[in-house]
Amino acid sequence: VVVRRMLSDIISSDTELVVVGTAANGKIALTKLPQLTPDVIILDLDMPEMGGIETLRRIKKTHPRLPVIAFSTLTIRGAQATLEALSRGAADYVTKPSSLGGGKSAISTIRDELIPKIKAFARPQMRKAALGASPGTAQTAPPRPRAAPPAGLSPKRAAPIRILAIGTSTGGPNALTQLLGMLPKPFPIPIVVVQHMPPIFTNILAERLTANTGHRVYECASGTVIEPGVVWVAPGDFHMVVTKAPSGSRLQTHQGEPENSCRPAVDPLFRSVADVYGPNVLAVILTGMGGDGLKGCHKIREAGGQILVQDEASSVVWGMPGYVANAGLADKVLPIDAMAEEIKLRVSATRMVRRDTGITSQGR
């Protein structure tokens, strides 16, 4: 009761939002849903009588396009439940602060995380309702004029790709599962990933990606030597960067200031791969809220690297990829189901580095 009241007060404090109803468990929520017709649902994953995962399953069965934001605990169990919810159709999630006593810190943390996500998913629903259309999958395009992407380099004329760097946020776990699952195993070059997630969650994500894609996926440990055939995920609350070393490129983590309100952030990783690998970088921006990755893509473009972004139709939120596409930095804008083939083309069409030691072979 206390948490529901606190969440209601936080949401209602924004003049653009209205709380149309609350429910003590999933059973009650399902009975209220047809009458309240909300634009967005905030769903606690830990409820009595009917838990969040079962409630989500039933909501998606009757209202497949209704955005659901999972509300979960910052624990191993909470992380597992959250990733399960995302795989079952939740649009995004917000973690509960360690203390939910209603203090200023807890309230501000929830407000800063939750309100932007509610608005991102609610606005498209309301726009479509106003036009008399049925609500669809939430999309958020950045407020920038669309620019034509650069001609770029043909994969056959580009510098050899020696590293694949991926940045993503909202909708990322599912997009990563789909993308990695379609890439060859083992992949001939290293893959580094920033997914906006808190501590604990990133390790669980790496374990799930390993189980679901067949790739070796690890949460990054600082000082790791980069090698082909392995995927590293930036750990929650740490930036991940690539550095040069006599024994080969290494991954380092640090707790520098958040960038774009994120830690880990995509920009630090992308800047570092541009500095270390220059034109030998292939960067991919997948679905995500906000503009993280845009500055890093500028650096990669300046260094002569290649950039692919996910298209609007297949993104949960077209924020991060939209900013890069609209800035004219993308070599191609692709649906998620076509991304793996394009990556394979660009890697195999160039000289592929087998080891991070300069030993190469000519790709076909």
Explain the layout of strands and helices:
Elements: H1 2-12, H2 26-36, E1 41-44, H3 52-62, E2 68-72, H4 76-87, E3 92-95, H5 104-130, E4 163-168, H6 172-181, E5 191-195, H7 201-213, E6 216-219, E7 224-225, E8 230-233, E9 239-243, E10 250-254, H8 266-277, E11 281-285, H9 294-302, E12 306-310, H10 320-326, E13 332-334, H11 336-348, E14 352-353, E15 360-361
Helix pairs in contact: 1-5, 2-3, 6-7, 6-11, 8-9
Would you mind describing this structure in some detail?
The chain is of the alpha/beta class and 364 residues long. The chain has helices at residues 2-12, 26-36, 52-62, 76-87, 104-130, 172-181, 201-213, 266-277, 294-302, 320-326, 336-348; strands spanning 41-44, 68-72, 92-95, 163-168, 191-195, 216-219, 224-225, 230-233, 239-243, 250-254, 281-285, 306-310, 332-334, 352-353, 360-361. The strands form four sheets. It has a seven-stranded parallel β-sheet, sandwiched between helices. The protein has a three-stranded parallel β-sheet with strand order 1-2-3, sandwiched between helices. The longest helix has 27 residues, at 104-130. The relative contact order is 0.12.
